Amino acid sequence: MKHFSIFIICVILSFGIIGCQNPEYILTSYEKKECFYGNAFQDYTDYFKYYYNAETINDYKNQANFKKVTSENINILQYYFSNFKDSVAVEQYFEEYDFDYQRQIKLDDYFLLIDKKGYSDFELYYVDMEKCILYYICRNT
């Protein structure tokens, strides 16, 4: 019984460490990756940056799940990024959070929003075509 309890604890901890990342939407052709994790167990935020070159970033244009940023969806994206910035203000990686949503969200970039429970539980993949960076933010409460 003691071994089973230890096993269950390990499984629970491993799910907490994995965090939000859903790698099936991240193209593996990136050249560099930066990961910043919140330090909470159940309520957490993650912030990742995937760096691509000018050629490979264009592969996101052909991904069925990604949508083009338009004037119709730009406000909702800004709201998600604003909400996320407020929630990471208390995280140890706040200094590394450098996405300026008021200037960086542009028409013709691409995104994928997975909204689980509104602004408190979501994943947002944002492809900055000019900078060749995919920003991944995740919040789970």
Which bin fits the share of residues in helices?
A: 25-40%
Order of strands in the sheet with most strands: 1-2-6-5-4-3
Low-pLDDT regions? 4-20
Counted by DSSP, the helix tally is 3
Termini gap? 31 Å
Which whole number gives the mean pLDDT? 81
Proportion of β residues? 25-35%
- The gyration radius over C-alpha positions equals 16 Å
Q: What's the order of the H and E elements? A: HEEEHHEEE
Major beta-sheet overview: 6 strands, antiparallel
Give the strand tally.
Answer: 6
Decide which structural class fits the backbone. alpha+beta
Q: Which outline best applies?
A: globular
Describe it.
The chain has 141 residues and is of the alpha+beta class. Helices cover 26% and strands 27% of the residues. The protein contains three helices and six strands. A hairpin with a 6-residue loop joins strand 1 and strand 2.
Outline the fold blueprint.
Elements: H1 2-18, E1 32-37, E2 44-51, E3 67-68, H2 74-88, H3 101-104, E4 110-115, E5 121-128, E6 133-140
Antiparallel strand pairs: 1-2, 2-6, 3-4, 4-5, 5-6
Give the key terms.
alpha+beta; 6 strands; 27% strand; globular
Quick rundown:
This protein is an alpha+beta fold and 141 residues long. It is built from 3 helices and 6 strands, in the order H-E-E-E-H-H-E-E-E.
